[in-house]
Design brief:
Two copies of one chain form a homodimer.
Chain A lengths: L1 E5 L3 H12 L1 H7 L6 E6 L13 E2 L2 H5 L4 E6 L7 H10 L3 E4 L2 H18 L3 E2 L11 H7 L5 E7 L2 H13 L3 H11 L7 H4 L2 H15 L9 E2 L7 H10 L1 E12 L3 E12 L11 E8 L3 E8 L3 H17 L24 E2 L1 E7 L2 H12 L2 E4 L8 E6 L2 E2 H10 L3 E10 L2
Chain lengths: ~400, ~400
């Protein structure tokens, strides 16, 4: 059985490395007499690379080689990844991808082609890097109705928030550190604005609920506005601020999905997920809370997830793995303002005593928070649960307050 | 497709409940036009039970009904579970079991029959209840060489230790509470002496290393001797005491496996696994640390794992799932005294100052621990790493000390 890799960056070269390093056991597990890497497609040159002889620049060589049954796509980006992957599937090759942008934008189309051609399109590595999550969700928890899923799905933002929490450093400083360490890209937008986490929760939600959820439909907030004052209030409330990606079933037929920084209580298993680690909390009707924890990114963890998918493709050449989802329309996802939540609010008030009375009059029961050395006139509190629209409307009517920060409380 | 359940206790009735409750989605996922429970085998009567009509007392009815393709074994115990399961497999039926005693004692034999008959013998529920672990280990982490695994695998002992740690109650008191709550059996031996955790680590080790590891080969200590003094010293050391089941590859060809209470540092993900929850930490060469967390027991979590296996059997009627292990001999597991560890030691000394000097002379670098209101003459310390044999030999030579408690430090 022959394999090809498209895209020889960090992850693609990791796949080649894992295939070489654990070659014997991987071949055995794939139940093939031999499992061999035949081509590596990349537009760049890699002189002196141990795999130099396998390098090609023409995609058609892979497409037209009938001996290549499994193709690994680690190019990233939408184009030409989409064209290449769909061409491979149409040619009867199974494809394994780590490309969350591709799966989140085109998963329904690609899964449909795979089904028509009776081949596999697998993407365990697209969410949670080396953490097994796609397969456990689709197989091990198959007897459950999963009603909620909460994830810390982006290592870069979790590293930044952890440093802010543990070392009291501000966002800009930590972002610079993360860039210097290689934990953040030069252009960190996709991470810090929540887009990366959004793509991943879309993939998980699509898988669980059987309908393709597009990133555009999911309300997404990044962590750029998180202030050390919020970090401190969260601590005194009994929790931490994490970038939480959440998807919940609503009334059995609709979906609530939001990505945003949120307060997580210290009693939650997600509160102790630090640094670049990721974790996913799944709530099923039979199984209760299940948490998956591990490295959400990195060369070898991601490569190991890809190679596990390759092994699975080799073992099921005549059978499509069951999982997939249908296309659907935007109505499937509800307006996030219509969902119930409680909010953490930090604000400025010229007359704090009057403001507290007004807050209690407007919001009813609230939990007032304090912090050491708070500037005069700063007020922070956590509301009771109501629809987010109702809570924000109430806040708008409180002219005595100038809101500085509003964050959700994650119920995980 | 017809299913039968053998054993209508807590777990077996949970399987019937999950099959009924999520019937529509389970049937869909099983890719069968219908998935129906046909028989429930139990020697007891269940008058008024919703499934009363399915109850049978004669095993041969299941064995001889060719329409029953999948049999769920939730009887527990070795006999007649072994005879029934092997007969079903030989008759070409797939079997799903939650019976860790059976899998740990007879897994190699049953897997061999399953392979010969090209049917499936699956047992996701035998370890970690509702936590997906068997399938992720055999599939998702297949590209890894797994070199270490640490588990909190028994909910009863974890509940007891959590109460001792958080509420300062002694072992006997908490055991009584656990029995009153139904978290511990009337005869709690299998739990508190570590036998249950031992069976589970045997199953995980067999799966990972491909060779059957029998419970008899694994050095096992329970938690009955854990004193509140040890709990306090562990806290001051920066950790907690957990019943840890551990398996490690040694020199690429042998296995170290031990079940015992051990000190776990607060920085470990396993340190925050409280109450009846279980967790399994897997260290792979590519993926790094991965943790699986959830309810390790209970009716519905366990039932959900069983039903997921049933779904898998239905989807792979013509194909044996790849996993299994070979028989092997006792030499595979090394003497635990030959492995490296560091030890926590609590002891009594008539002349503490002299004793500290002697300890340092004998053990070299040690970390001395203290606690509030320690009785006069009590000494506690943590050694550096050496073989357990060397450390215990040194302790034996220290006649100035009367050892009260010796615990391993878990490096997880």
């Amino acid at each position: 059985m022959y394999v090809a890799i498209m895209g020889y960056g960090v992850v693609g070269s990791g796949v080649a490395e894992v295939l070489a390093k654990n070659h014997h056991s991987i071949t055995k597990k794939s139940m093939q007499s031999e499992l061999e890497l035949k081509y590596i497609l990349d537009i760049r040159d890699f002189p002196g690379d141990p795999n130099e002889k396998l390098m090609i620049k023409d995609f058609n060589i892979i497409l037209n080689d009938d001996d290549v049954k499994v193709v690994v796509e680690t190019m990233g980006g939408l184009h030409p990844a989409f064209e290449f992957v769909s061409a491979c599937l149409k040619a009867g090759k199974s494809v394994v991808s780590s490309n969350k942008e591709l799966v989140a934008a085109k998963g329904d189309e690609l899964l449909k082609i795979a089904e028509e051609k009776n081949v596999n399109f697998l993407f365990e590595a697209s969410v949670g890097g080396g953490i097994p999550i796609i397969r456990p969700l689709s197989q091990c928890l198959a007897a459950n109705e999963i009603y909620e899923i909460y994830g810390i799905l982006n290592g870069t933002t979790n590293f930044i928030l952890t440093k802010m929490i543990n070392e009291g450093l501000d966002f800009a400083t930590v972002l610079r550190m993360a860039q210097e360490n290689g934990y953040a890209e030069k252009d960190p937008t996709a991470d810090i604005e929540g887009h990366d986490a959004c793509r991943k929760i879309c993939i998980l939600a699509s898988l669980i609920y059987g309908k393709h959820v597009y990133p555009d439909w999911v309300h997404t907030e990044g962590i750029t506005k998180i202030d050390l004052a919020d970090v401190e209030y969260a601590k005194n409330w009994g929790g931490v601020i994490k970038l939480i990606a959440c998807a919940k079933e609503v009334d059995g037929e609709k979906l609530y999905a939001v990505v945003s920084p949120a307060l997580v209580a210290n009693t939650s298993q997600l509160s102790s997920v630090d640094d670049v680690f990721n974790a996913i909390l799944v709530k099923g009707d039979a199984t209760g809370d299940v948490v998956f924890y591990g490295r959400g990114a990195g060369k070898l963890p991601t490569a190991s997830a890809i190679v596990a998918d390759v092994i699975d493709c080799c073992r099921h050449t005549k059978e499509k793995k069951f999982f997939g989802w249908e296309s659907c329309n935007e109505n499937f996802v509800i307006d996030y303002l219509d969902a119930e939540t409680s909010l953490y609010i930090r604000a400025k008030a010229e007359h704090p005593e009057d403001a507290v009375a007004e807050i209690q009059k407007t919001f009813g029961n609230v939990t007032l928070l304090s912090r050491k050395d708070a500037p005069a006139g700063e007020i922070a509190f956590v509301t009771d649960t109501d629809t987010e629209r109702a809570l924000r409307t109430k806040l708008d009517t409180l002219h005595i307050l100038e809101p500085l920060s509003v964050l959700r409380i994650a119920n995980c």
